[in-house]
């Protein structure tokens, strides 16, 4: 079983200590009632990963661990085969002792678009909502964040995160909890909150923005990244059953409308910092994610449209501050 005791001990010493009033009960309930059918077998696979202390870790330029002397072919093959069991790998890439996990998403491209604009993370306490396998959490640590908490209810992502953490030498600066944002109390404790690729999956996007705001300290910064459409502050797409083959896509506003939503929720200094079309270089099938990807979600005769006829994926990033 994943042991969250160390996380409890760490937050007991900082300004997240009030979270302990509800968090242990929530995670105990999760372990009793909500485990995925394969979770126990995934944990056994995790235990088979070798305990390696990396000679060098680079989280500034990627998520990279190396060892001197270089691991043998057999040792690399062992790590490769174990990590393959945790497919599909969606967010990355990772380079761990010569095993390169070529994930579906080039999440480093998104990070490179964001990092020139966000406030320095040095010494900060950070929350990453919908963090997936935790790729961006490690990049936040690489930027000097003191303590990074990720939340994502998908249990495969938790196992992927724990596998990477073990191969990084059991780094305790980042932690992933199997929770959704709606399960968090109003902590008002994070200097920076990231919500990337979550908003369009929420039935009530303004409630999501309020939940994010309630995690921030006064003066804290929100980095919001989401699907958008072209248009002015009055434009919003409400797709039918699917958008780009995804279910549960409720609202895709224009970036300008998203800015209005943030201001409506009381954020200030709201800025649109990036707007980029998602390319098949950034999201694609790989050896580590073999099911359908972006190429299968677009109209084969018109790449500017999804297979359902909606505008093809366009993503925007915004930064806002809690007063």
From TrEMBL:
Entry-linked InterPro entries: CmoB (IPR010017), Mo5U34_MeTrfas-like (IPR027555), SAM-dependent_MTases_sf (IPR029063)
Biological process (GO), any one: tRNA wobble uridine modification
GO molecular function, one term: methyltransferase activity
Catalytic activity: carboxy-S-adenosyl-L-methionine + 5-hydroxyuridine(34) in tRNA = 5-carboxymethoxyuridine(34) in tRNA + S-adenosyl-L-homocysteine + H(+)
Broad class of enzyme this protein falls into: transferase
Bilayer-crossing regions: none
Positions bound to carboxy-S-adenosyl-L-methionine: 91, 105, 110, 130, 152-154, 181-182, 196, 200, 315
Record has tRNA processing as a keyword: yes
UniProt keywords, alphabetically: Methyltransferase, Transferase, tRNA processing
EC numbers: 2.5.1.-
Family: Belongs to the class I-like SAM-binding methyltransferase superfamily. CmoB family.
Cross-referenced PANTHER family: METHYLTRANSFERASE, TRNA U34 CARBOXYMETHYLTRANSFERASE
Cross-referenced HAMAP family: tRNA_carboxymethyltr_CmoB
Assembly, per entry: Homotetramer.
Stated role: Catalyzes carboxymethyl transfer from carboxy-S-adenosyl-L-methionine (Cx-SAM) to 5-hydroxyuridine (ho5U) to form 5-carboxymethoxyuridine (cmo5U) at position 34 in tRNAs.
Protein name (Swiss-Prot/TrEMBL): tRNA U34 carboxymethyltransferase
């Amino acid at each position: 079983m994943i042991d969250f005791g160390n996380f409890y001990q760490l937050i007991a010493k900082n300004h997240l200590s009030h979270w302990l009033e509800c968090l242990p009960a929530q995670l105990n309930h999760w372990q009793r009632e909500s485990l995925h059918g394969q979770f126990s077998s995934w944990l056994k696979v995790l235990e088979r990963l070798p305990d390696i202390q990396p000679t060098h870790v680079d989280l500034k330029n990627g998520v990279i661990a190396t060892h001197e002397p270089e691991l043998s072919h057999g040792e690399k093959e062992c790590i490769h085969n174990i990590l393959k069991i945790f497919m599909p790998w969606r967010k990355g890439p990772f380079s761990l002792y010569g095993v390169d996990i070529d994930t579906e998403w080039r999440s480093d491209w998104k990070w490179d678009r964001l990092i020139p604009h966000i406030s320095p993370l040095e010494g900060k306490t950070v929350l990453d909502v919908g963090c997936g396998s935790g790729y961006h959490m490690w990049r936040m640590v690489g930027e000097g964040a003191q303590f990074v908490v990720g939340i994502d209810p998908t249990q495969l992502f938790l196992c992927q995160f724990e596998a990477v953490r073990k191969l990084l030498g059991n780094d305790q600066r980042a932690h992933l909890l199997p929770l959704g944002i709606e399960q968090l109390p109003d902590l008002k404790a994070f200097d920076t909150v990231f919500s990337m690729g979550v908003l369009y999956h929420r039935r009530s996007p303004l409630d999501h923005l309020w939940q994010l705001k309630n995690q921030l300290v006064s003066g804290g910064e929100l980095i919001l990244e989401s699907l958008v459409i072209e248009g002015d502050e009055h434009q919003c797409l409400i797709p039918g059953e699917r958008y780009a083959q995804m279910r549960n896509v409720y609202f895709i506003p224009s970036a300008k409308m998203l800015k209005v939503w943030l201001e409506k929720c009381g954020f200030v200094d709201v800025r649109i910092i990036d707007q980029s079309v998602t390319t098949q270089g950034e999201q694609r099938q790989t050896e580590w994610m073999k099911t359908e990807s972006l190429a299968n979600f677009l109209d084969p005769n018109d790449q500017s449209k999804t297979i359902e006829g909606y505008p093809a994926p366009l993503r925007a990033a915004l930064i806002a501050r809690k007063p």
